[in-house]
Amino acid sequence: MLAVKGTRTVENTLVPFDRASADLTIAGNQSFLMNALHPDKAVRDKAEAMTQAVAAGADRAGAEPRCVPGALSRRRLQGQPGNAAPHGAHAIAISPRRRRQDEETRNRIRELQDKQTSLSLQFARNIQEHVNTVQVKDVSELAGLPDDYIARVSKNKAADGTITLTTDQPDYARS
What we know:
The protein is mainly alpha-helical.
């Protein structure tokens, strides 16, 4: 994206930007899913680090003045109707205000976004690693939940008929 010389076009600007955006989205979604659902803590830890790295990379690309959004915010695309600046979904990705900020301000914003990502992942980790339970004395207390879920958890009744629900990922991921 940074290598474009001369006139920006859809083919040399938006197509690579869309591909990179899609790749970042896929990588972020897959690492987040592994972080949320994998039973092995070591895999979750690696996935958490990957989620953080993808988020940081996406943020840095969007804030880079030489990157596609920065270039598009200052240039028109040749061969486009009305030779107009981008609009719609691409306009949302463009943050010319942020690119006009000095390097110190951009670095502070980057630090805060990294901290936000870290806190979000820490919150998810706390939920994953601290399993809570709810004791249900009678299956009628589960009214309103999907029938297949009620049937599945009802199979695990204790001798006194109590059903234990947990926040462990097999319980909430399948419900």
